[in-house]
Amino acid sequence: MMFGRGFYGVGNCLGFSRFGFYGMVPMMILFVVVVTLGIIVLIKVTKRGNNQSSALSILQDRFAKGEISEEEYLAKKSLLK
Question: Are 63 and 57 within 8 A, CB to CB?
Answer without folding.
Answer: no
